[in-house]
Design brief:
With about 350 residues, the protein is of the alpha/beta class. The protein contains eleven helices and 16 strands. The structure holds threonylcarbamoyladenylate (TXA) and magnesium ion. The site of magnesium ion (MG) has 3 residues, from loops.
């Protein structure tokens, strides 16, 4: 159900959930000061409680009020990248409930760029927690119609803000402060790359260090599979791809080894004999590839005669700009044919 901004504000104030457009993907929002409202996000999405939510703010001051750790370096970082597709994970204040952070001491915060999302947060007057507006483990929505179709039964209220410009979820950055210094780790790749962050901090003379190793505790919600389309996706390295017929026989040989469920996410399998393969083509520009990725996966899945979608991984896909996209494709794939086949 498409609703106006005014109606959405009213619903959120009454502890309901509303889907809002953001520049990354559509989010399923609820006010953060009501555990009842927050729990509705988890039940609507059928999302496990161990997977924490990102809190969306409309100002840096609001972000500060949600944290118990802040310095000039953090301020400089968010001032530069916000509003935009960067989420910082930082020590929380007691304004943020444990339901939002899955019991963790840190909270993920971001200021979205979409004017309707900002107007919504300001209108409600309270930050909004919002995961992507899709059922758990499924493809994220980049159009209002995606949300309406996904939650047809629930008849979720959606604000139509057009197509999401970025197309994949925000970069998630773990931030630890020590004096005026920063210790950083990328927990999820997105449109903002590590190089962009490094270049900015270096130019500003902010001292920082990137750390690779992050414990499972610090980075929950990273399932092996996610974003799965309705029709199974198979990724194959260019080196092993010759033609569709050979791919079909390769898939046939490997189907029996496919598990049914991995970490609570159901693995999508072909329904019967595989006859019709559809290629997912993303072109050469990573920004455009990200923008259209989820819409293309949905379109290909909606084609009634499609038994399977395949993506041919090429050498250019290993560059930093493609990391976010390749992460999504890897998790969305039921089968991957890489080096070790
Ligand atoms: O672009 C986006 O980030 C979108 C839009 C709607 O803003 N939101 C989104 O939310 O992608 P979601 O729930 O699909 O992804 C949230 C992920 C979690 O699975 C987890 O990996 C990480 O962000 N995260 C959130 N809070 C965290 C925390 N306190 N500690 C560690 N990781 C956290
Ligand atoms: Mg999601």
């Amino acid at each position: 159900m498409i609703v106006s901004l005014g109606k959405a504000i009213e619903l959120l104030q009454k502890n309901e959930v509303v889907a809002m457009p953001t520049e990354t993907v559509y989010g399923l929002a609820a006010r953060i000061d009501s555990d009842i409202a927050i729990k509705k996000i988890f039940s609507t999405k059928e999302r496990p409680f161990f997977d924490p939510l990102i809190v969306h703010v409309s100002s840096i001051d609001e972000a500060k009020s949600l944290t118990s750790e802040w310095n000039k370096a953090v301020e400089g970082l968010v001032n530069h990248f916000w509003p935009g597709p960067l989420t910082i994970v930082i020590s929380k204040s007691n304004r943020v409930s444990d339901v939002i952070t899955s019991g963790l001491t840190r909270v993920g915060i971001r200021m979205p760029k979409h004017p309707m999302a900002l107007a919504l947060i300001k209108g409600v007057g309270v930050p909004l927690a919002a995961p992507s507006a899709n059922k758990f483990g499924k493809t994220s929505p980049t159009k209002a119609i995606h949300v309406e179709r996904e939650f047809q039964k629930e008849n979720i209220a959606v604000i139509d803000g057009g197509d999401s410009e970025v197309g994949i979820e925000s970069t998630v950055l773990l931030v630890k402060t020590s004096g005026e210094n920063l210790e950083l780790s990328i927990l999820r790749h997105g449109a903002i790359t590590k190089t962009q962050i490094e270049m900015f901090l270096t130019a500003k003379n902010i001292s920082f260090k990137f750390v690779q190793e992050v414990s499972k505790m610090e980075s929950p919600g990273h399932m092996k599979h996610h974003y799965m389309p309705e029709v199974p996706l198979v990724m194959i390295d260019e080196k092993f791809f010759t033609d569709k017929a050979t791919l079909i026989s390769l898939i046939g040989k490997n189907l029996n080894n496919l598990p049914d469920i991995v970490e609570d996410v159901k693995i999508v399998k072909p329904k019967g004999e595989i006859k019709n393969l559809q290629e997912l083509e993303l072109g050469d520009d990573p920004s455009l590839a990200a923008r259209f990725l989820y819409a293309k996966l949905r379109e290909l899945s909606e084609n009634k005669s499609a038994d399977l979608i395949y993506f041919v991984k090429k050498p250019q896909h290993t560059s930093e700009e493609w990391l976010g996209i390749m992460d999504r494709l890897t998790k969305a794939s039921s089968l991957i044919f890489e080096e070790d086949i």
